[in-house]
Give the backbone structure.
Amino acid sequence: MSRRDAVVTTAEAAPAGKRARDPFFDNAKFVAIVLVVAGHAIGGLRDVPAARAVYVFIYMFHMPVFILLTGYLSRGFTLAGGRVRKLTVQLVVPYVLFEALFSLYFWATTNKPLEFSLLRPTFVMWFLMAVFLWRLSTPVWKQLRWPFAIALGISLLSYMTEMPKELSLHRMFGLLPFYVLGTLLRPEHFQALRTPRAKVVGTAALLAGLLFISTVGRKLPHQWVYWDSGHEALGVGNLMGTLIRTGMFGLSMALTFAFLAVVPARHLWFTVLGATTLYAYLLHDFAVRTFMIYFGWYELEWLHTLPGVTLVAVAGCVLATVLCTPPVVRTTRFLVEPRLTWLFAPAQPSLPTPRSVHRSAHPSGKP
C-alpha cells in the first residue's frame, strides 16, 4: 500500500534509468482507500437502511482489493537482498509506533487506563501485521502446486473454531486466499480488465452486488463482513457457516475484479495520491473517532437520515484525499515511513553453500 510497494511498469514516460509507474494501480489504491475511509465514517449510521447496505457493500471488497494488489506486488518477494529489513521498516516499525499512538489516544480521550499490546492489533492495524506475515510466506506459496486451493481450504477451516484475538488470526487466515491469488496474477490478467467490455461487465456486477446486498443480503448480520469471528461466535454451525463463507468468497472475488475493471487506467488528478494511501489508512481513524465519537457527532439525529449519511460519506472521501496529499505526507513521514538505517547491523556477505565449501576442500574440485 505504500509508495514503495507501488507497481512499476512502462505505462508512462520516465527519467532515464527508471521505469514508470502504472497509473492503473495507483488509481485503484486511491479509490479503494476513499471507500475504506467513507465506509468507516458511516459505520455509526447503520440504522439507516441505505447506510447499512452501502457499508456492507463496501466491506465486501474494499480490503480484498488491497490484499489482492498487495499479493500481486509481492509475487517476486524473497528472503534475500535485504528484503526482510525493508519489510520490517515498512510494516513492523509503523505497526509498533501506531499501536503506541492509539494507546495514548484512548488514554487521553477515554477513561481507559494506559495499555499497550503488540499482540492485539487496534482496529486498522491488523492489516500491517497480516501483510508482514503474508509476505514472509510468499516463497512457500510459490513452491506449492495448488496454492490458491490450499489457501482457501485453510481459510474455511480456520472459521470452524474460535481463534485467539492475538494478531487478529481469523482475519489473517480468513483473508489469506486474496493474497495468494494476487501472487498468482500476471500483468496480462490486469490488461484483460482494461477493455471497454470489462468495464461494462464490471459496472453491471457492482450494481447487481449492491442490489443483492440491499435485498437478499440484508438479513446477514454485518459482523460477517469483518472476517474476524468463527462460526460459533456468529451463531451458526460449521456446515452452514462454511457455505456462507464460501458464498462470501465468491461474491467478494466478483466485486473485487468488478471494481478493478471500472478503475481508470489513465493518469488522472488523483493518480499521484495513490502512492501514499498508507498515510490515509493509518491516520484516518484518529480523525473519524475524534469527530464522530469523542465529539458525539453520531448522536446528532439529523445525521441519521439519508442526507446526513450522504454528508458523512462525502466528508470521509474528502478526509481520505487530504490525508494522501504532500503536506500531510511530509509532516507524518517520520511515523509512516521512518528511515531507520541505524537500527540494523551492516549487511553480511552471503555464505558459500555447503556444496561450494565441499568443492573448495578438494584440489580436484570434485566432491
Q: What stands out?
A: The mean pLDDT is 88. The chain has 16 helices and no strands.
